[in-house]
Each structure stands twice: as C-alpha cells, then as structure tokens.
C-alpha cells in the first residue's frame, strides 16, 4: 500500500485575543459612541458647526463598525479547536479553551459541494445529514469518537463468505488536514474503515488455518493490531489517528453457517472420541499391569484379549453397560 506523503496543509497553533477584555473595550466604545452622537446632536441644534457634524457622522458610522467587531467572539470547550480561515487562506488553529475574540472576517464556514451531495444522498435514504466542521463554523472536536461499522459480508482467505464488523475509536490529530485535505473527514473515515475491514478479512482465514497461521477467530488481538495499523496508514491523509480498532461481529454467512456448524460438531465429536479412547487404553493398560504385578490372577493372551475387549466396550460405550456375572469357573 502506498505511503501518504505530507502535503502543504499542516496545522499551526496560534493564539487570539481574550474575549472578556475585547468585550469590555467594545462596550466602552459603544457607550462613548452613543454619548458622542447624543452630545453632537444636541449641540448642532443650537450651534450647527462643521466639527460637530463630522463627529456626528463618525459616531453614526461607528455603530455598524462596532457591530462587525462584535461578530469576532467565539467560545471553545475543552478538546475543541477553531480553524481560522481569512479570505480563503489558512491562518492557524486555536486549541485553547475559553472565550476568545478574533478577526471578524475569519470565515464562519459553510457546506461544500461534496457535503451537499452527501446530504442529498442521506435525504433520499431517509437519514439525517452528517455534521461537518464547516457547518459548525470551522470548529473541530478533538475528543475521541467511535465508528461502529455495519455488518459486512466478505470472503475470507479461503473464499468462504463471512460476516464481519468492527468498532473504531478515532480522534482528529491535525485539524488542517482534516478540513482541507479531504472533502468530509467523517465520511472519509467511514468509507476507509469499511474498505480496510474488507481487505483485512481477505488476508485471514475464519478458522482452521495452516500450522502457526493466525485466523480471525483464534487470533483476535493480532487481527485487531493489523486492522489498527492499516487504518492509521489510510486515515493519515485526513489528519486522524486511531486509538483502538476491534472486531465486534464475526460469523459465517447464513448460506454456509449450517454446513460449518455440522463440521465443527463433527470435529468436536472426533476430538472427544480421541480423548475417550486415549483414556480407555491408559486404564486398560493400568489394570493389566496391576493384575500382573500383584499376581491377582494369571491370564493368557486369549483371556487378556477378551478382557481388553470387554473393558474397551465398557469404557468407550455411550450407553450404560450391564455386566453378566460368570457363575462358573474362569476357564469354562
């Protein structure tokens, strides 16, 4: 898989003015502007001079200017960032939580063409539109988020159809890449996660692999590490890191589930039979050796064979055995 090469969009952390001092300043300027307008208006009625007319005009024009400046306030919660874009140029990212003031001409965001297309497709399916950072005023959440993939039907390494799903815990690491290197990073994460999960399933057998071979069912930790490594590489372009990736659903597809269940049952029966026979042989051998060592009874080869046969039937039989007591001599 080709490695993503770093592009020109990289996050730059910047600082902006504190919000409360700017709020106090704008309030003082507004009060002074209103006082200037009121004083000039009263003075012009009694003594209309050009100086007072100019001050009145400046005061009137100052009100919309202060209104524009007041639009530069914004707040950030913990683990939240604001991307600053001025006339299409990326200026930096604010990561400090609190009340801030920035250039009022910083872009407030808006839906891109790709996001509008995604919204239209979601509306056709009866789904709610996915939120985007641009709709939130270029605010990007830095919190850990999860993506639960739908159950996908894929083929494993042996070509058997299986059902698989995973949960991905991810967070935005580079806000500039998340906003400017991909059209919608949340949709990009969903698409790439499903693609990586399909590719991963094709690299492993469901179970019963070759000797020392990892399988999806028996090597969950190794499979999860491989999935996370592939997602890290795929999502690096979007400035996203993956904290954890694990399988949440793994099963054979319905069309072969019954056949595979019968195979697993047969394998379990064979394994159980092997243990039963191994235990029975060990018990018969112990019985013969104890009889011989303690000289309880002397048996020839024919009688030993008969005894072994009877003990194997008793020990390996599934139903309860009813012994027949021989009332005569041992050799009659």
Question: Helix and strand layout, with pairings?
Answer:
Elements: E1 17-18, H1 19-46, H2 50-70, E2 73-76, E3 80-86, E4 89-94, E5 98-101, H3 113-124, E6 139-141, E7 145-148, E8 152-155, E9 161-172, H4 175-180, H5 185-203, H6 220-235, E10 240-252, H7 254-293, H8 301-316
Antiparallel strand pairs: 1-5, 2-5, 3-4, 3-6, 7-9, 8-9, 9-10
Helix pairs in contact: 1-2, 5-6, 7-8
Structure description:
The chain contains 8 helices and 10 strands. Helix content is 48%, strand content 18%. The chain has helices spanning 19-46, 50-70, 113-124, 175-180, 185-203, 220-235, 254-293, 301-316; strands spanning 17-18, 73-76, 80-86, 89-94, 98-101, 139-141, 145-148, 152-155, 161-172, 240-252. The strands form 3 sheets. Strands 7, 8, 9 and 10 form a 4-stranded antiparallel β-sheet that branches. Strands 1-5-2 form a 3-stranded antiparallel β-sheet, covered by helices on one side. Strands 4-3-6 form a 3-stranded antiparallel β-sheet, with no helix packed on it. The mean pLDDT is 78. The chain folds into 3 domains: 17-101; 144-252, 2-Layer Sandwich (Tetrahydropterin Synthase, Chain A); 263-316, no CATH class. It has 332 residues and is an alpha+beta fold. The N and C termini lie far apart (81 Å).
Quick description:
This protein has eight helices and ten strands. Helices cover 48% and strands 18% of the residues.
């Amino acid at each position: 898989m080709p490695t993503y090469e770093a592009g020109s969009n990289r996050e730059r952390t910047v600082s902006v003015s504190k919000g409360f001092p700017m709020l106090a300043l704008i309030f003082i300027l507004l009060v002074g502007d209103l006082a200037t307008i009121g004083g000039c208006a009263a003075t012009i009625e009694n003594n209309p001079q050009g100086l007072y007319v100019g001050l009145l005009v400046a005061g009137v024009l100052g009100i919309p200017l202060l209104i524009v400046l007041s639009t530069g306030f914004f707040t950030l919660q913990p683990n939240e960032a604001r991307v600053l874009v001025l006339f299409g140029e990326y200026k930096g990212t604010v990561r400090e939580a609190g009340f801030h003031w920035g250039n009022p001409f910083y872009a407030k965001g808006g839906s891109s063409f790709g996001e509008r297309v995604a919204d239209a497709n979601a509306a056709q399916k009866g789904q709610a539109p996915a939120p985007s950072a641009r709709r939130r005023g270029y605010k990007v959440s830095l919190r850990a988020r999860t993506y639960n993939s739908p159950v996908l039907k894929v083929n494993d390494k042996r070509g058997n159809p299986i059902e698989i799903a995973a949960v991905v815990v991810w967070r935005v690491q580079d806000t500039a890449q998340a906003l400017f290197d991909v059209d919608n990073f949340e949709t990009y994460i969903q698409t790439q996660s499903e693609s990586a999960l399909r590719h991963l399933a094709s690299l492993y057998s469901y179970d019963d692999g070759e000797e020392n071979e990892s399988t999806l069912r028996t090597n969950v930790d190794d499979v999860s590490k491989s999935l996370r490594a592939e997602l890290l590489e795929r999502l690096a372009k979007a400035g996203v890191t993956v904290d954890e990736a694990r399988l949440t659903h793994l099963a054979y597809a319905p069309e072969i589930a019954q056949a595979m269940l019968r195979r697993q049952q047969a394998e379990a029966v064979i394994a159980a039979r092997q243990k039963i026979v191994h235990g029975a042989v060990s018990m018969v051998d112990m019985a013969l050796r104890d009889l011989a060592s303690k000289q309880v009874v002397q048996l020839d080869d024919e009688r030993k064979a008969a005894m072994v046969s009877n003990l194997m039937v008793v020990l390996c039989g599934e139903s309860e055995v009813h012994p027949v007591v021989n009332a005569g001599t041992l050799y009659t």
